[in-house]
Amino acid sequence: MLQQKFNPDQKPIVSPLDGKILAIRELSDIESEAARAIDFKAIADQVDGFVRKNLLRPGKLDLNQSDIQFLNQYLTDLLSPISDQVMASILRAGMIGILIADQSQSLKPRRYIDTSTLPAKTGSFFQQHQIDPVTLRAMKDIELQGTVHISRAVEQTKERVVDSLLESMAKGHGPSETVENIRQAITDPEEINRNWRRVAAFEITHSMTNAYLAASPNHSLHLGRSMPDACDHCKHMIDGTLVIKTDHIIPDYQFLKEDTPEYAERSFLWDRVIWPGKTNIGRSSSPKTRDGRTRAHHEQWTPVIPAHPHCRCVWIMINPALVYVKAGQILTKEQNPAEWQKWFDEEATPLLNLIARFKTLRAV
């Protein structure tokens, strides 16, 4: 499982046509799991009780350094199990991605993956499944990135709570005003609450997508699919776009001269190739800067999922020997052999021909 490589000369298998619907459902299940852990009303209640009991003294609010240290330690302990649960959801999303890639290489219909049956850590999952080195590396990267972003959210939460206390002290708030100020900081959808939910939403989608790509055969073809209410960028750049996956990174080209063949080559490949961990960080969705300058290719977004924190696009593996794409729909070769042949020659073959070009960029 998960170690076979794509060979266009062998008979490939068909990716199920309902894969997009099931992937969205599974993604929603994982996000709901994480959302239950991020209950900021319950967090606010607990912080409220702690502050009233330990920090609010009779008369004017007067905090010292030991009070802040005490509060910081309390918040660290309070947020630790929440962080663990969010990380478990991120890792489960990666496990789902691996299982989706495995199912997509089978002739059997795609099956719904019950997220509640997946472990919270990768160890037992790896023991049950044969994981290739590319997928293993991707899962380690997913865990590392999730840890960094969750840790950042924890620190932002602690900072915001402490800031609200200091603000109340500076304004001469009484006990009721102080705890209300803290509650608003914690539950305000535009502050801490939003930060945690953005981290969870993006990291879960990132985990599922990149584990799926890592576990997909090298040089396999994938079709981008978007939701009907997708943003204009996703509809234009992802939905209906056919790309080829490689196991390794195609090097960035921001430091190459824009008028060189090497720059043109990289630009061409970044528009047509995906790989585990591909990102648009440092790039913009806008083709022009605020002063009207047209951005260079390396400054603009290329096909990447997730494109943004609320992205619900998916890559669906297709096999060009058995299916083809027409108007964004996946059709079988038997439905119209002539249409399939035309699509294979004009759309699939140019992508498969890129395999030889990867070698010059060490992306093999």
3D architecture notes:
With 364 residues, the protein is an alpha+beta fold. It is 53% helix and 7% strand. Helix 1 packs antiparallel against helix 3 (65-104).
**Strand arrangement, largest sheet?**
3-2-1-4
Helix content: 40-55%
Largest sheet: 4 strands, mixed
N-end to C-end Cα span = 21 Å
**H-E string:** HHHHHHHEHEHEEEEHH
Radius of gyration: 24 Å
Which segments are poorly predicted (pLDDT under 50) over 5 or more consecutive residues? Answer: 1-17
Mean pLDDT: 87
By DSSP (H or I, 4+ residues per run), the number of helices equals 11
- The coarse overall form would be elongated
Structural class: alpha+beta
**How big a fraction of the residues is strand?**
5-15%
Quick one: how many beta strands?
A: 6
How are the SSEs ordered, and which strands pair?
Blueprint: H1 19-37, H2 40-54, H3 65-104, H4 122-128, H5 133-171, H6 175-187, H7 192-215, E1 221-225, H8 232-237, E2 242-245, H9 261-270, E3 273-274, E4 314-318, E5 323-326, E6 329-332, H10 337-352, H11 355-358
Parallel strand pairs: 2-3
Antiparallel strand pairs: 1-2, 1-4, 5-6
Helix pairs in contact: 1-3, 1-7, 2-3, 2-6, 3-5, 3-7, 5-6, 5-7
Quick structural summary:
The strands form two sheets. The chain has a four-stranded mixed sheet with strand order 3-2-1-4. A two-stranded antiparallel ribbon has the order 5-6.
Give a quick set of tags describing it.
364 residues; alpha+beta; 4-stranded mixed sheet; two-stranded antiparallel sheet; disordered N terminus
